[in-house]
Design a protein that fits this description.
The protein is mostly helical and 206 residues long. It is built from nine helices and three strands; from the N terminus they run H-E-H-H-E-E-H-H-H-H-H-H. The protein has a three-stranded mixed β-sheet with strand order 1-3-2, with helices on one face. Bound molecules: zinc ion (ZN).
């Protein structure tokens, strides 16, 4: 089994700049993210330390964070013990580029709506399907996470149960399309030519 090389991860990011252009910063090194973390904690969406250490976040807040920036909880292309492995980093970038596309289709709408549970569930479910497509591309359909377990992850985004149930239904529908050989997300569609060439050495299924 071949694991991604660091230069592949970096090249993938550069390639995805052609899909949605973003800045890239390490979250824990950014003062403004400490402010955002406190705000999210106040809204009851996520605990401050969890947000800073456990999650990568993509934001565009007019007047505060521009252009759209991906704040990672890892240094891209660098694997550290207990940290994100390089495949997880690739999936994370593809996921966050999907958020960048959601943002560029209406940034103010995204910021305002992300604070509401049903929209948050919608945005996340349409970004986590990118992770499913990545796993399916590399390992095959059996590697895609169970839709109910995937939807349950939205609990840590403080989504309401009704929205989590809706997300589970969305995953079931979209995963079926992926299993049938379809491409669901714009992010994966943009990335696939890179995976099929420069990333081909890490693929486990024909
Ligand atoms: Zn997300």
């Amino acid at each position: 089994m071949a694991n991604p090389r660091s230069e592949t991860v970096l090249a993938m990011y550069d390639f995805m700049q052609g899909f949605e252009r973003t800045e890239l910063k390490v979250k824990s090194e950014c003062e403004e993210m400490v402010v955002v973390a406190s705000l999210l904690d106040c809204f009851g969406i996520i605990k401050k330390d969890t947000f800073l250490n456990d999650y990568t976040t993509t934001l565009n807040i007019p007047g505060l964070i521009e252009p759209t920036t991906i704040f990672t909880n890892f240094k891209l292309g660098v694997e550290v013990p207990g940290g994100r492995d390089l495949w997880t980093q690739m999936r994370t970038i593809a996921h966050e580029k999907m958020h960048a596309r959601q943002i560029s289709s209406g940034v103010l709408v995204f910021d305002a709506r992300y604070l509401e549970s049903p929209y948050r569930a919608w945005y996340e479910s349409h970004a986590f399907i990118v992770n499913c497509e990545m796993d399916n591309w590399r390992w095959g359909p059996g590697a895609m996470p169970d839709p109910d377990l995937l939807a349950a992850r939205l609990k840590s985004y403080a989504c309401k149960q009704v929205d989590i149930d809706q997300a589970a239904a969305t995953y079931k529908r979209l995963q079926w399309t992926v299993k049938m050989g379809g491409i669901v997300s714009e992010s994966f569609a943009a990335l696939k030519p890179f995976l099929d060439t420069e990333g081909a050495y890490i693929r486990e299924v024909a």
